[in-house]
Amino acid sequence: MSQKFELFAEDRPDQGKGASRRLRRTGKVPAILYGAHRDPRALALDHNALLHQLENEAFFSSILTVTTGDKSQPCILKDVQRHPYKNQVLHVDLQRVLEDEEIRVTVPFHFLGEDTAPGVKGGGVVSRVMTELEITCLPKHLPEYIDVDVSKLELEVALTLGEVALPEGVSIYGGEEMLEQPVFIIHRPRREEEIEGEGEGEGETPPGEVPTTTGEPEED
């Protein structure tokens, strides 16, 4: 069952860099709500409440509800700008959604059966080539994540996007050309003797040959 997330917002009459800096000093985050064939709307969100919700993976791939006054609007999170080193959100982009129009969202993969995969049991090393997927779907079909079963994967065999079972109503953004993209591979580990053997022969003189030097002759 999908989790429900609600954002409480207020209108932001003043815009621009200076106005945004002043807003952040009051514990608010400037945001923009756009889409659904309507004009963009400048909003302000509570910073601490937003930061808490951003800790939840599902927040990024769920239909959110943004409430301003007595009106609510379904939307999705499209972009989050963060401070480069502070734990601070600088700006948020929200996109309105309509129930009869497809949306484009990036959702995470959840890998199942890694421990029981034959390749892992055989000593293989896991490589998650893709950890998320950009999809298109109607809002009612939006999954929080996509399960990827790797429990039968052998060594050196890649699981491709075309082999991932997608939820009902979900399509891969990018079309059929994406189907051959590798998602998950279990590599054969390099043997210790192969690593040790990489340096063999370096600096040694083959039998029957006289060592030569390329530098200047040594002085007495």
CATH architecture verdict of the largest domain: Beta Barrel
In whole angstroms, the N-to-C terminal distance is 85 Å
Tally of helical runs = 4
Order of helices and strands: EHEEHEEEEHEEEEEEH
- Biggest sheet, open or closed, and with what strands and sense? 6 strands, mixed, barrel
**CATH class identity of the largest domain:** Mainly Beta
What general outline do the C-alpha atoms trace? elongated
Describe the overall structure.
This protein has helices at residues 17-25, 47-54, 118-121, 192-197, and strands at residues 5-11, 28-35, 38-46, 64-68, 71-82, 89-96, 103-112, 125-128, 132-137, 146-149, 158-160, 171-172, 182-187. By secondary structure, it is mainly beta. It has a 6-stranded mixed beta barrel with strand order 1-3-2-6-5-4. The chain has a 4-stranded mixed β-sheet with strand order 10-7-9-12, with no helix packed on it. The protein has a 3-stranded antiparallel β-sheet with strand order 8-13-11, with no helix packed on it. The longest helix has 9 residues, at 17-25.
